[in-house]
Amino acid sequence: MKLFRPWSNSHFLNSLPESVKKVAVLDKVLEEGALGNPLYLDVVAGLSQSNRKVDVITGGTYGLSSKEFTPAMIKAVYDNLNNNQPKIKYNIGINDDVTNTHLEYGESFKVIPNTIRQFLFWGLGGDGTIGANKAAIKTLTKVAKLNGQGHFVNDSKKTDGCTISHLRIGPDDINASYGIESHADQV
User: Fold this and answer.
1) What is the tens place of the pLDDT at every residue in 112-132?
2) Tens digit of pLDDT for each residue in 31-47?
3) Which of 15, 59, 103, 175 has the CA that lies 20 to 30 A from 125?
């Protein structure tokens, strides 16, 4: 769900299986001073106004300061949800050593199928690395009939700043909305 307002409680409840007993709501906004973030509050209100009962509803914030949301962070959200006393309000991805409302998460792990190859290319802004990598993805997806994904990161200094190209290529669908961390293939 990309847009959640106006809130449709009937659509939300119809999409939530009856067997669900624990819900983790993740917002990409932080509402300091509020009881919770906007989506979390709508989910809590929607469930309380229905006859649906769940045991736990947690509300987390992710993606602060443009942090990637990685598989290790997703695992931490589920681990928190399955805790005997889960944190109800938390953030993931930033270590908040003042309020201690963050979730700890472990090392990165690979969830991409072995048929997908992952590559990282470093360059200098203006050296043509990003353009060459975009051309490589287009060629491999059109000519070789492979699936491709490119994610490009630029330094704030466009020219002569560091660029990193994250490329994924393979025969299977690629469903990874995060950058390559430590599992790039070596060539």
Assistant:
1) 888 999 999 999 988 999 999
2) 888 889 999 999 999 99
3) 175
Q: For residue 30, give every residue at least 6 positions away whose Cβ sits within 8 Å of its Cβ, in sequence order, or none.
A: 37, 61, 64, 91
Domains along the sequence of the chain with CATH:
9-103 (3.40.50.920), 117-170 (no CATH)
C-alpha gyration radius of the chain? 20
Q: What does the pLDDT read at residue 187? A: 56
Spatial separation of the C-alpha atoms in residues 27 and 5, rounded to whole Å: 13
Q: Rounded to an integer, what distance in angstroms lies between the CA atom of residue 62 and that of residue 27?
A: 6
Q: What is the model's pTM?
A: 0.78
